[in-house]
Amino acid sequence: MPIVIRALPAGEPDAAHPDARVVVADEPGSYPCRRCLTDAAVGDQLLLLPYDPFPGRSPYAGDGPVFVHADGCAPHTPGDDVPDQLRSRLLAVRGYDADSMMTTSDVVHGSLVEDALKDAFSDQTTEFVHVHFARPGCFACRVDRC
Predict the structure, then answer these.
(1) Which sequence spans correspond to the domains of the chain?
(2) Tell me: the pLDDT tens digits for 41-69?
(3) Predicted TM-score (pTM) of this structure
(4) DSSP state of 126
(5) Cβ of 40: how many Cβ atoms within 10 Å?
(6) 85: helix, strand or coil
(7) Residue by residue, what is the 3-state secondary structure of 1-56?
(8) In terms of Cα–Cα distance, which of 70, 28, 30 is closest to 49?
């Protein structure tokens, strides 16, 4: 199934947001940057910011927390390779139709994300999928059919 994985589908989070916080990664594999879709290295500075991944209106829209490297990073190049940061975490996989209404949802270990995406897109009304880190509930990335 041809897919494309996208970081930050609604554009960059607002670094000047009054609720933004600067944090320093103090544990490996614990600070997933949503811009480059890699985990920050210990000692990296990140911004913790509110972010709404829906580019349009939806009852499911709303800000949630995301990390991005504070000093910038190379943005993730949209493609079909599943980033390593997804493979080691528990994920919520949520499909949406053209009106941004939920069509399907599941919670899976990241090692099974391809199967969950295939299941989500087996519903022909599913236009896109949002993947969230299930435990904290943070948005991870968007997946589209090609």
Answers:
(1) 3-145
(2) 999 999 999 999 999 899 999 999 999 99
(3) 0.96
(4) -
(5) 26
(6) helix
(7) CCEEEECCCCCCCCCCCCCCEEEECCCCCCCEECCCCCECCCCCEEEEEEECCCCC
(8) 70
